[in-house]
Amino acid sequence: MPHWDESLVDDEVERERLDSRGVLRALATAGAQVRAAVGLSQEAGIDRVAGGERPRGVLVAAVGGSAVVGETLSRLAEPGSPVPLAQATTLPLPGWVGPLDLVVAVSESGRAAGPLALAAEASRRGASLLTVGAVDSPLAAVCASARGVHVGLALGGMSSRTALWALLTPVLLAGHALGLTRTPADVLAAVADRLDAGATAYRPSSEAFVNPAKLLAADLAGGLPVILGDGPVAGVAARRAATMLARTARVPAPSGELPSAASEIVALFDGPFTGQGARETDLAAAVDDIFRDPFLDGAPDPRLVLVLLRGALTGPTGSWTAHADADGDELGDAVAAAAQDAGVKVRQHRAEPGHPLEQFADLMCLVDFTATYLALGLGLDPGVSAHVRALRDYGR
Asked: Domain holding 280: CATH number?
């Protein structure tokens, strides 16, 4: 079982040594990313996206850590979107995309092969383009040749995982300008304030015993995390959490969204990684035995840890609500109760009331910091993976 070392999380020297790419510092800039992106979007002429006319359809091209941009736009626009929205990662560009449609290509480096190829093909077909990524990049060049709108990034040295809000903000402003979402600049300003508050609450200097992200990371270090979003807003955050845990902390974590994923998540409670479902009669006792010597007796098998991300109980009605109705919240309570009955550790985090995008910011801030602290506590660099680097070298 992984060994969690709290000193690697709380000691400033150890954190700096492990976090070679400054992931924690980059996450703390999320609020600043939003504010800077609003200004850059306005300078780039975000209001003239698609010629200022509502497109027939919208396709978001993004991969990796940027992929959440397309899902977020879709969730904010649905179910009342006046136009269909789709997502793609690489060629072929769907046959329906033509001169009446808008393609949004997102890449932090401006060099991601999938979005770049999709943007180039969209340009060839005469579709409108909105691109978000590095200035003076191949993606920016494709957009310029198509006379589209390109929004550059103000803050450099980030990965797509830590630059999420710099990438997402221009797309949401474009969605608002086209009448697809209700995400004006004042809502984004409130989101930036939420992100600043989260960065303060989860700051590295906050001791582990009072820092919610560090506490959650310590719980996940000793088990197998299962991430469940209680409704649409939390469902996107749950999938983001699974991505961040895998990519940043190198910990696998199945995820799901209520109500559709209720059965598959609850079925795990009958399996071998819970106190109730253990096949060996002494497994549950072995996990809980405070006198167990991990060096002499061996580490016990890990147990499931259910992380339940929840939207606010109350909030404004809109196209992307945290909870559709009271039944959704009751289902979340039922899943949590079933987990506890099976001996599964349950950790819940509920967003504060506000615009759905503000609630989304609450949940995303927690999961991003948690994954980073988990990597550090396990002695890993959250920004560097030798195997990912080798894979990139293979593809060159």
From this structure: 3.40.50.10490
